[in-house]
Design brief:
Layout: E1 6-9, E2 23-32, E3 35-45, E4 50-54, H1 61-69, E5 79-82, E6 85-88, H2 100-105, H3 113-123, H4 139-151, E7 157-161, H5 169-186, E8 189-193, H6 197-203, E9 206-211, E10 214-220, H7 231-245, H8 282-297, H9 301-315, E11 335-341, E12 348-354, E13 362-364, E14 369-375, E15 377-386, E16 389-400, E17 404-407, E18 414-419, E19 426-432, E20 440-444, E21 450-454, H10 469-477
Helix pairs in contact: 3-4, 4-5, 6-7, 8-9
Bound molecules: fe (ii) ion.
The site of fe (ii) ion has 5 residues, from strand 18.
Amino acid sequence: MAQPRIRNRAFTSVESASQAPTVALNGFTRRFGDNVVIDGLDLTIAPGEFVALLGASGSGKTTLLRTLAGLDPIGGQDVTTPDARAVVFQDARLLPWKKVWRNVALGLSGGDVRTRAEAALKEVGLGHRLDAWPSTLSGGEAQRTALARALVREPALLLLDEPFAALDALTRLKMHDLVLSLWREHKPSVLLVTHDVDEAIALADRVLVLDKGKIAVEERIALERPRQPDARFHATRRRLLATWASTPPHHRPLPRRRWSPSRPARSCSDPMSAFRPAPKLHKLADFVGALGNLLDQTRDEDLILAEGGRLLSGLITRDDWLPDAYAQPDPTRYQQYLLHCDSRERFSVVSFVWGPGQATPVHDHTVWGLVGVLRGAELSQRFARRGEAFAAVGPVHRLARGEVEAVSPTVGDVHQVTNAFDNRVSISIHVYGANIGAVERSTYDAAGRPKRFVSGYANTTLPNLWDRSKPVLAEVDS
Ligand SMILES: [Fe+2]
């Protein structure tokens, strides 16, 4: 039987390491059944190098981390990792029945175990919590304990699996400083798996983007530390996001399936199938996937509006993907049809259908939004408070077909929007930073009195974005 070609080296400190890489994978492949998760991956990590690995869910990054941690089999492939390695996961994974120092000392041997655990805990700022129970720790303290537990093992390779994802923003920034200072002090090679592009740029020497089990992007970060969110930082972020957001998982090639006319017809009893999906709905599915990727990576509203606006621009360059059922005006009032809502309600996409001459009341926005005109045009008039009442400010803004504008409470939008035409229908695609059907907002009357409202949806069934057979059927049909 062929022997695995794994080569382990035991590094006790970076000084003892040669220039040989700490990690080396040559053509590494990992598959589950027919699904190739890692596809012929070549990767080296130098001694003391800090690498961040970005990638959408399902891109293979967790599988790669587990491989480097020795948690997954390598099946005889050419993989080099050091013996001394440690992992910090998103949850601290502390044993609740052991005090903090004993959690750190877990698995250590020798007479100085307590001393070593104490030293590591002091290094992460928890010298005063040695005898605490894990249940009394804050989220940040628990992750510091997990870092101490990794550190005490003097790893040559430190693997960080989204370790700050569950922390609040301020604690996360403090943890970034801590990790950098520990890395400078101990100089392990680090692989940080993260969804947060800012975190990757703030910390790493090199950022990799994994897509479909391959490295799609590699960027060296030459910015001096500590890294400030300056123009060069933003330029790096835009470069990485532009590549990443434009390669949603839906762009994977469609499997070519042989279609036979004798195949039984699809049942339409499922409410998801109430409307026969337009073959071009995959444009909307791609948009939804790309926006979800973007929101995985950043919570920065400016960036979401800029990159999301670019994605929405792409979606509205053509209008042939919108099924007729979601383009129907109503003679009494404008209609809002839900096209998609993110499962975590981080965003919703609606088609806003204006009958001739229809207008909204003056209203505000309590979440970010993007508006792109698909057909016709809209007129928008901004309002600002003048004493008790609201008064129109600035000129009426015309948003023409193909144009996108942003709204948000930080932009400060109180406005009234009207169909630019009194003899035809206009349609705009709106994207909101929440389930807009569950968000309270206000309209304002002429005296400036607010009235709370929640947008409703005109539809009770959703377009089916996920049926991959439709483009194939369409080809056969045509
Ligand atoms: Fe609005």
